[in-house]
Amino acid sequence: MILxxxxxxxxxxxxxxxxxxxxxxxxxxxxxxTKFDYAEQCEHVADQKWRFIHNPxxxxxxxxxxxxxxxxxxxxxxxVEVLQNNSHVELTDSFVEYQYxxxxxxxDALLNTSKLDQLISFSAKATFLEMRANQTDDTxxxxxxxxxxxTDLERKQSTWTQWHRRFSPVLTDxxxxxxxxxxxxxxxxxDSVEDYWEFLSVYPGGYESIRSMWGDITELHNKxxxxxxxxLAEKYKVKLSDDGIPAYCLGSLDGNDWIPLASDALPxxxxxxxxxxxxWDKNLRGKLVYxxxxxxxxxxxxxxxxxxxWENSRFNQSCSTQxxxxxxxxxxxxxxxxxxxxxxxxxxxxxxxxxTSQIGLxxxxxxxxxxxxxxxxxxxxxxxxxxxxxxVSPEQxxxxxxxxxxxxxxxxxxTSLMITALDVLPRLAYYISADLWRINMIKNGTFEPKVLLDxxxxxxxxxxxxxxxxxxxxxxxxxEFITSNKPYLPKFLGTLLAFQIYEYLNEGRSEVxxxxxxxxHVNADxxxxxxxxxxxxxxxxxxxxxxxxxxxxxxxxxxxxxxLDYLNNEPEDMYSMTTDQQSDIEHLEKLYAxxxxxxxxxxxxxxxxxxxxxxxxxxxxxxxxxxxxxxxVPEKGKKDTVTPNAKIIPEQEKPKIGESEYTDKINTxxxxxxxxxxxxxxxxxxxxxxxxxRRCVKSQTPKNRRYV
Length: 708
What we know:
mainly alpha; two-stranded antiparallel ribbon; 4 strands; about 60% helix; globular
């Protein structure tokens, strides 16, 4: 905080003498100072949301979060009004121009105030409803465990249906807020929703591109859908419709990725069993799996999460992982302490986003608050997906000891490819169906609840190969992106970009590799692209540093070509986990799952048997059971230092810091230094203004400029 306000003073000292100079410099100075206001409001929103998700029963906390969101939006709108006084400035610098329009067109914040408040309240209400639903007889985690493991199809369907129908009461509200997208587009100067979302995603022509790319991916996607459907039909001894896979058979409530189906869909049972069992045996869960994931960040980006991330995050909460960005104060995650392939992949994606944020904040001139607040980055999504791809490469699975050295090479390769396919391909289908569904509904002015529901399931069937017998179930209301009118376009683009970066790292060879996954050296080009995209166009940065002129599907298709060949040959050597292996995995899940795990959804405990040895032990830890990439969290305020492939004993879980404890200290310190900075700045400005006045022939300072 001292550094922050010190830099403000330095900026004032440098910029005030130039007030009478170049208009572009004046505009840049104004926007630089605006970033601090954005950062302050961003932190406040994150604080309020963090409190709410850990005490969702409290209506007061919900309203506090809502008010913080509304205040943040009001700030953006106010800054636009002030910035419009500079409309006479001729922009001659492309970077300043990008920053200017990032602030001038902030997205939904330009909506009519009453409609903006309605949108924010509805999104918060949908989140609240989901968490309230989580307080019923069965929590979300218990339901998803049933969906992924139980063999009773009728029970699956009944449970899945009952959960999603709890959202029906807010369907009418959604019909109203969906129409606000076109109004927001108009307020930002765009004639169509497509143009508006492409602008926010910093990728002109994006929807035309992803329609074309999806056409290229469709064959591969359909092959995987058919393969999974046949495996499920074999498991349940039923014939599934040619129309697609029933949504309640996808192993989760969302059905966006199919990793929960790994036990059923992966073709080689022994490899599947080894991975799932070793995740428990090696304790790759909670904080430890995030430390393991950080090793890839150290190798690729020479960056690991700061100590504050480990100290402030909560690794023993709900499995509905949430990553919150506290701007100046970094990031933190809330997740669960369970070992699963889903949590393993999620940990790598989250760590990638944590490191992307840290790199962006590394230099003060890149303060990315305008960009992260008002734009969506495909590069950030791409780095996140890249970490996930690398995490399940055969080499990495061997390194972590999740598969043994005597595992058949072809089997480990196909297993690796299928894991990534189950994660990536269904999400790509979901992203494009969710966006095109909304775009077409808005374009046609169709907002009647029944029409919305019918068309939703038509799009899911067409793009995802997912069906239901009950088209009155609004699964989209359990999706924060949809309820808050956010586009999935950058996630689609970022997922494809990940494979292009993977290909770039491996010098054009995009097959699954068996040597070191990232060539054991830091890649400066990726770091520079991340740093530049913190405050500039991510599309320009990937072209400048990674030689990616446009996102395309070629690298993804090349990566999955061995899998497509495998599926085309109708493999006959497949085998599932044995009954004993399945029972062993279930036993491990029940043995280690803690009965006192706190969930963000309710205060009652999960109905799992209490595990053995859940309390911290003073006995010496056997380091041979730890993954080779783990490391100790360093002293507070310092970065982690990782020694690759070093087996180091992890520290014990630290006690949680109370909400009031950390916020009181931060707020007090911030207030003291803010007051001090303002007083010193006032004196400095007066002195500089007096001595600099003679150089000013005529002031060109825009009205309402806050630094004069």
